[in-house]
Amino acid sequence: MHNVLLTGFEAFDQDTLNPSWETVRRLDGTLLSDDVRIVARQLPCAFEQAPERLRQCLADVQPILVIAVGLAQGRSDLSIERVAINLNDARIPDNLGHQPIDTPVVPGGPAAYFCSLPIKAMVRALRAAGIPASVSHSAGTFVCNQVFYSLQHALAGSAVRSGFIHVPWLPQQAAQAGSALPSMALETLVEGLRIAVLTALNTEHDVLETGGQVS
Amino acid sequence: MHNVLLTGFEAFDQDTLNPSWETVRRLDGTLLSDDVRIVARQLPCAFEQAPERLRQCLADVQPILVIAVGLAQGRSDLSIERVAINLNDARIPDNLGHQPIDTPVVPGGPAAYFCSLPIKAMVRALRAAGIPASVSHSAGTFVCNQVFYSLQHALAGSAVRSGFIHVPWLPQQAAQAGSALPSMALETLVEGLRIAVLTALNTEHDVLETGGQVS
Amino acid sequence: MHNVLLTGFEAFDQDTLNPSWETVRRLDGTLLSDDVRIVARQLPCAFEQAPERLRQCLADVQPILVIAVGLAQGRSDLSIERVAINLNDARIPDNLGHQPIDTPVVPGGPAAYFCSLPIKAMVRALRAAGIPASVSHSAGTFVCNQVFYSLQHALAGSAVRSGFIHVPWLPQQAAQAGSALPSMALETLVEGLRIAVLTALNTEHDVLETGGQVS
Amino acid sequence: MHNVLLTGFEAFDQDTLNPSWETVRRLDGTLLSDDVRIVARQLPCAFEQAPERLRQCLADVQPILVIAVGLAQGRSDLSIERVAINLNDARIPDNLGHQPIDTPVVPGGPAAYFCSLPIKAMVRALRAAGIPASVSHSAGTFVCNQVFYSLQHALAGSAVRSGFIHVPWLPQQAAQAGSALPSMALETLVEGLRIAVLTALNTEHDVLETGGQVS
Description:
alpha/beta; seven-stranded mixed β-sheet; two-stranded antiparallel ribbon; hydrolase (chains A, B, C, D)
């Protein structure tokens, strides 16, 4: 049996749940074929703990593909992140009260890693299935980017492809906040992540179509 | 048997479907109690036809409550409209190619009508159910506002309460457009509209809590 | 000598100044022709005081044209308001700590008044001068709308035309907040308001071009 | 005499001017001290030409500091870019009709370069002067990012510090488009860029305060 590792985060800031974990835990154990299944694991939203916990997950699960998932308040679609940068710059404290400013994720590491997933094919497949998706060129500078960078660093040079997807708030989070921020239904998130994983597994060479931003 | 009338629009502009009609048609025939049911009707997205078609629906259905529903591209929640204004000012042509500019909905009619639904109670009930909702103070100046004004004008002075709700794009519309505009799942829209109707039926006096905007 | 009355508000909420007052006070005393000059007056940002103070200004100045100006945080252009509604619904307390919810501006007054300025000609003239401007269909439900409604109510039936313009933050306000909200330079605001006044004075019949919103 | 090189772009897409060039050309020749002056140069908005033209500028001017400036439609402040990535992914064709998709800026180059300017001190100084500014973590994937990456690549390992600043539309561009996109007055842009240059020249060690984004 081959494993696809999906990670999601525990709740952070004002929230009582995190759509990234709610999504991936519903896919835990899903069989994608006779010999490929999804394994979901939760990561802490804490700079000091998340990278080490990620490395444990990688060692335990021995995945053939990894997608880390996180929440991006205010975004309206599945954002497939293209680049992880070697920088922590926390606007707010993490769940342990730490707020690193202008520190590297990995001292001495390269400035950035690109996602190794076929991101254009994934966006195309998601949109074809009626699920809003796009390429993003910044995963921020908080624990999401830290985990994304740590993941790409850990797997650099290996044959295991990996990346990061940001997801919107759940409807109940937008409802509770009483704000006008966008949200996405859990069912859409789960189906979207399933499609993203399948597309990543089944696409050897990415398609060539723009996902760019002028600025 | 008492009827609640819900109206939705046909598709317009670039779209091939309209979430307002997709939502209300799924509620058509729903029994809300032993003697109250929902009747859904479609309205054309055309200034010349929509008000007359609305009047026919009112005459046919003899409703005890009416909620007209329309699409608001770019909004992220169920927007309960508070005020309908006596003004057509079309930024784009309607489905018949007409584009009235600065004409009244009803010549000689009052400048505006307020919604007669318990809108604060509806927003509260929707949020409590985990469905993003808010009060809006402009229904625009296109066919949506024309229908809303026509509805309030037709029922002015009657005991039948009525109003208008704007809904976001469906996910497949945002996916097809490839844009970053927000969307809402059809299941959420249907459940939200059901809750809105029930709350309107069961709330005699609206709650007093702010839904205001500073500007 | 004929007077054009411009009003601006004192600072409110977290701000230490208000761009509406900063703008109009710089136009105070400006001669627009041999016998027309601008008179600027400040209004309190308080529901209990603003309408009465406005009426005093009207009585004192005996204007031939009135434009009230207020701040709209988050807007990026000169928003010429089209409609004032008979509703106070304060999301936050005013400068006296009052927060009216769902009360009328004028008990028994009409639901709304339309602006009596040539708003399309004003937008056209501003854009031609390189100053961002648009028509808005909601002035909110706070003191700005209250003043706008009170103004239209006071002058209803008279030959004196009047309206309301919302302006963005000043750059220093956006800078201080550290947010990504738009702003406009004071020089642009002052020149824009001068053009708006001149266009209103010199345009008998408004131009027919859309300023509408689909929703 | 020491030179500070500022570059701006020619107009592109639908625009007839480019605020980046309008800004820097007004600073051309400005003396910052007895022996430091600003030299402004224009770059083409074309993937095939911009890097080579930049290298010529560097060779000609022999600068002690370089800030490249570009337009970011839709942004509202001076965005000091933190990271340049080794990726071209053009959403629209450049001025020569070329639209590279998923090509490297420099084949074999590192995935990214960080800005070598004291960006936090620059944001602080700009805000203190009343000019909206922030740190950005994506310069896009068009010619702006290409120039930024090329600049950091050319100066990597040297003592010459360099970076990229994105600026908003000018007011007349927003006015002409009739859109609600934010803009900034040319005077504010010029003063802002002057402050940014002075701060970069005079700050040896950057301040430690967050400019981060959660996502």
